[in-house]
Each structure stands twice: as C-alpha cells, then as structure tokens.
Amino acid sequence: MLKGAFFALVKKEFFSLWRDKKSRSVIFLPPVLQLFIFSYAATLDIVNIKIGVLDRTNSDISREFIRQIKTSRYFSEIHNFKNEKELKTSLDEGKIKAAIYINNDFTRKYKSKSNPEIFVITDGRYTNASQITAGYISEIAASFSPVGHAKNVPAVRFETRNEYNPNLSYHWFIIACLAGILPMTTVVLLSALALAREKENGTFDELMVVPLTPAEIIMGKAAVPLFFGILDGALIIFLAIFFFKLPFEGSFFLYIFSLFIFLLSISGVGLFISSMCKTQQQSMLFVFVFMFPSIILSGYTTPIENITPEILQHLTVINPLRFFLVISKGIILKNMNNYYVFLNLLPLIIISIFAAIGAGRAFKTGRG
Predict the structure, then answer these.
(1) In the chain, which end has fewer C-beta atoms inside a 10 angstrom radius, N or C?
(2) Is the dihedral of CA 236, 238, 240, 242 positive or negative?
(3) Geometric angle at alpha carbon 273, from 33 and 29, rounded to 5°
(4) CA angle 63, 68, 73 (to 5 degrees)
(5) Helices (H) and strands (E) in the chain, counts
(6) 3 or 88: whose pLDDT is higher?
(7) Is residue 268's pLDDT more than 50?
(8) Which of the two residues, 300 and 332, has the higher pLDDT score?
(9) Which residues 6+ apart lie within 8 Å of 241 measured at CB?
(10) Residues 6+ apart with CB under 8 A from 69
C-alpha cells in the first residue's frame, strides 16, 4: 500500500510538472545555459590583462623589457603613460589592472650589474588577479635578457605596491562584493514570491479590485523587499567593519543611495518573474535561473574581459550586479568620486525603468 501510494505521488508530481509550460522550460533550458556560462566564464586563468607602462629611462634595454611583456600571452594591451597622473587616473578608472614603473636609473643599474629595479602597481580591488599579474611580470623579469647583452647580469628586481588593498586581503574583496550579492538574493526572492503568493492563495483577483492602479500595486509589493534588502546591505557593512576591519573609505550615504538604485532594478526583475509565474515554486526556480548567471557574469568570479566567448562580455551590460560591484568596491575601498559612481548608476537606472515597465505589463496580463 505504501509502495503504491509512493509511486502514485511520483506519477502525479511528474504530470503536474510536465503539463506546466513554464516549468518544462525550467527543466531543460537553464541547465544548458548554465553549462556554457560556467564552462566559459568561471575560469581561474587570468589572461587578456590590460597594463600600463611609465618608462622613465626610455632606453633600448627598457624598451626590450616592455617588448617581452607585450609578446607574452597573458597581456592583451599595453598603455604607455607620460607621467604618474595619467597612470593613476587610468588605474582609478579601471582601464588597466596593473602598471609598471621603470626608474630613470634602470639601464645604468642593469649595465653595471647592480640589481635594476622596476615597480609594479596593481589594483588591489581584484585580489586574485593582482597576485597572478604580479607573478607573471616576476617571471618575465627573472628571465629577462636583452639581445646583445650578457646573460650573467643580475635578475631585475621589482617591488609591488597594491593600491586600495595594500595587503591584498581577500576578506576586503569578497565582502565588498557580497555587500551587493546577498541583498540582491533577498530582494529578488521576496519580490518574485510577492505576486505568485497571491495567485497561489487565490487572492490575486481580490488584489485587482482594490482602489489602486497597477503601478501603485507594483510599488507597494516592491517596498518591503527593498527595505529588507537595504537593511541587509547596511548590516553586512557594519559587521564587516567590526569583525574584518574593512576600511570603508567613501560616503556611507552615497553607498546606501547606490544600493537603493541597484535593489530597485533587482526588485523590478523579481516582480517581473512573479507576474509571469502562477506558483511560488515556479518563482523560486526562475530566481535561481536568474541568480547564477548574474553572479558569474558580474566580474565577481573572474574579470569581465577574461570571459569568453566575447559575446558573453556584451551580455553583461544588462546585468545590474556588474555595475553595482564596481560601485561597491569603489566606494568601500577607494572613495570613488561622485562622477564615476553616477556613470555606473546610469545603467542601473535604465535597467530599473525597463524592469518596472516589464513587471507592469506582465502584471496586467498575469491574472490566473
């Protein structure tokens, strides 16, 4: 009897799931997409690195050293700078991941076998990438031997300075990212369940007859997830400062405002999912479908420029998390100025508008 009831339950669950078109799409499409996304994007190899060079000596030996770096398979672009200000600006804006500073006594020390020096400046906001990049340059420096010069000269000695995260603390990097990822999880899940719960409980039709416009209903449904999301974000920051000694360099109010705009776009996505689903179970499945690609394609696990094929790099422009992670790491670790914060807030505002429009239209047609 128990055995027959068990198989009957399994059969019922199978047909219930199979008859639902949305559930069928969740069974096959997301695993295939995630297979390709994880295979291509979640790689620990750091390649296509963009670096800068400030060559004070500008001799044939220093140019040969730069040429050997340029021909390495690890580096895709080398930007030459005229002064320290250009170098620092490019590093601040994220145009390069590391910079090489060659002193004006490099050639003299090399020829006199006096341990010539170069300085490597990395972006400490990218802990793992910074360490690996410095290792690549170290290997090239250790084996450097320009054509026409003796090979028994001392190896080039270099010093590394890590901007914004001097000790390359992994906790600083991971917390600056989790401060966006964890509130996003809360908001998208709560938002995705909001309307689906009404449909599942049979109260969706009652919701439609209340004296409120669809836009007001959407806003009301988004208010509570936004509140808890911002609360989660603030709590994470305070705990990180207290337990992990996170150096919050920027404006806390600017950070909270940016977090609000980010979570507003996420709540729009969650409400769109909720409007399209009939049950809370469907909503949760689609939340997971949304979450994993968003994290992988955000620059959290690997730099955006390291994601292949290149088409996935272009897809990241519709990912809200990509832009907020830049803001989060920028405000927390380096006191990013308002101009660069706004440049990354603008895509979030655009995404919020489109997500809200999509949620509103899906809400009007989501009855039943």
Answers:
(1) N
(2) negative
(3) 20
(4) 145
(5) 14, 5
(6) 88
(7) yes
(8) 332
(9) 248
(10) 51, 53, 75, 78, 100, 137, 140
